[in-house]
Specification:
The relative contact order is 0.07. The protein folds into two domains: 31-186, Orthogonal Bundle (serine acetyltransferase, domain 1); 192-319, Hexapeptide repeat proteins (UDP N-Acetylglucosamine Acyltransferase, domain 1, 3 Solenoid), CATH 2.160.10. Strands 1-4-7-10-13 form a five-stranded parallel sheet. The chain is of the alpha/beta class and 319 residues long. The longest helix has 24 residues, at 66-89. It has helices at 2-22, 37-51, 66-89, 100-116, 118-135, 142-148, 150-166, 172-184, and strands at residues 187-188, 193-194, 199-200, 207-208, 213-214, 219-220, 225-227, 245-246, 251-252, 257-259, 264-265, 270-271, 276-277, 286-287, 293-296, 305-308. The radius of gyration is 24 Å and the shape is globular. The chain contains eight helices and 16 strands.
Amino acid sequence: MEKVRNTCLKYLTDILIKSYEEHAEIIKVDSIHLLNRQRIVDMLETLRHLVFPGYFGKKNISLLSVEYHAGDMLEEVQHALSKETVRALHYSPHYSGLGKEILEEKAADITFHFLARLPLVREYLAQDVSATFDGDPAAANLDEIIVSYPGIYAIMVYRLAHILYDLEVPLIPRIMTEYAHNITGIDIHPGAVIGHHFFIDHGTGIVIGETTVIGNHVKIYQGVTLGGLSTRGGQTLKGAKRHPTIEDHVTIYSGASILGGNTVIGEGVVIGSNAFVTKSVPEKTRVSIKNPELQFKSDEHAPPTHTELRQDEFWDWVI
C-alpha cells in the first residue's frame, strides 16, 4: 500500500511540474523581487495605530508616551515600506535596469514623502469619521465608528494607498486596498480620487473603480457600483477615464449602479436604490426607478392583490 501511495504521489508531482512548465507566466522561481504581502499587511496595522493612536493595540498610551510610540512606529513603517518599495520598483518600466543603490535611494525618498502626508490623511479621516457620525443615527459615538465600522477601515486603507498610487509605486497600493476589500467587502481602487467628509454606510458590495472622481460630503450605501460601461477593450482602455464623476453633496442609495467615464452626477443629486445610471444627471435632481407593484397572495385559490406604492413615496431608503 505504501508503494502504491508513493507511486501516486510521484505521478501527481510529475503532472503538476508539467503544468508549471506549460504556464510559466504564473510561477515565480528564485525571484528576489517578489513582494512580501504579509509585511505589507502588518505595516497597514502599524499605520492604523499611527492614524488612530490609542484605539488599537495592547498598550495604553498617554500624552507623555505618545511621542515615543509614534517615533517607534514610524521607524517600523519606514523600514518595511522602504524594503518593499525597492522590490516594487522593479515592476516599473521607469526603473528597469537601474542599480540597487539608485532604487534604494528612490524608495527612501518615496517613503519619506508618504510618511510626511500622514497628518493630511488624519485630517481627512477625522472629517470622514465626523460625516459618518452625523449621517448615521445608529452610531453611539466616534469611538464606535473608529473601532468597528468597516467603511472607515476601507476609507483609511484607501487614503493611505492613494498616496503611494500618486507616488507611482507599483503593486503595493493594490495589495493594500485588496486586503481591505477582502475583510470588509468594500472595493476601492487606490487610483480613485475621493474628497473629504466621505461616508460609507454598511458598505458590503461597494465597488469604486480606478478613474472614479468623488467630491466632498458624498454618502454611499451598500451594493453601489461606480464602474465602467464596458471592459471589452481590456488593456487598450488603460489610462482612459472609464468611471463616473460624483460631485459634492451626492447621496447614492443601496444597489445603484453608475457607469461610464463621461457620466457626471451633479451637486446635490440623490440616486435612489437599484437605479441604473449611464448618463449625466444635472444638479439637485432625484433619480429613482419606477415605483414597484407588489403582489400579495393569501392562499393558492385566492386571486392575487396588486398594491402599488404611492407616487409621492420616493423609493430610496435603506436600513
